[in-house]
Design a protein that fits this description.
Length: 198
């Protein structure tokens, strides 16, 4: 996770340097990109309706494995394990609200899919699975404008859901898992995307 954060900062630095060359760039009609987020990798297909407004279809996920982030849950032992898997697809609208700030966009959209979490603590196994659809998304993007050639950006936003379905032994452990914001109705999201506009 630290590597992803450092890579994101490096991408932003390179991106801001490229903004100074705006006059030399030509705007693209389409773009294709690869993204990386806590919910897995993804493929993004973009249509630029105008220089300031774009439509994006994204899909992705990751196979079951150790979760990229893990919460602290007071009632569980320090060596509990959290594994997760996800699959999703979404349709998003991206807009540049300020005419002279081409590196900043606002994003919103809808997504369908699932996030499945399995928590194992000793002999106890719990699940917290997000399966209610659709979920909504709102966030901002910092990155290169809709240029032809190499494009990259960082999305920061929130996913709004109905929350997960919990299963497992009842008791203090289950209540602690349910009360933990890591398994809440609002999930933070950040995604680093690198792509090509044409």
């Amino acid at each position: 996770m630290k590597r992803l954060f450092v890579l994101s900062l490096a991408t932003l630095f390179l991106g801001f340097n490229s903004f100074a060359q705006k006059g030399e760039k030509e705007y693209a009609n389409y773009a294709i990109g690869l993204g990386l987020s806590p919910f897995g990798g993804g493929l993004n297909l973009t249509y630029h309706h105008t220089e300031r407004t774009s439509f994006n279809i994204g899909f992705g996920g990751f196979a079951e494995g150790e979760a990229p982030m893990s919460p602290t849950i007071d009632e569980l032992s320090e060596d509990f394990t959290l594994t997760a898997s996800s699959s999703w697809m979404g349709l998003f609208l991206s807009h540049q609200p300020f005419e002279n700030v081409a590196w900043f966009r606002v994003n919103t959209g809808l997504a369908v899919g699932s996030i499945e979490n399995t928590i194992v603590d000793g002999t106890d196994t719990f699940t917290a699975n997000y399966k209610e659809n659709p979920v909504t998304y709102f966030g901002v993007n910092i990155g290169t404008p809709a240029y032809k050639g190499l494009v990259y950006g960082l999305d920061l936003g929130m996913l709004f859901s109905a929350g997960p379905e919990f299963s497992g032994p009842t008791g203090d452990k289950m209540e602690a898992i349910k009360d933990n914001p890591f398994f809440g109705t609002v999930l933070p999201n950040f995604q680093l995307t690198v792509g090509y506009g044409f």
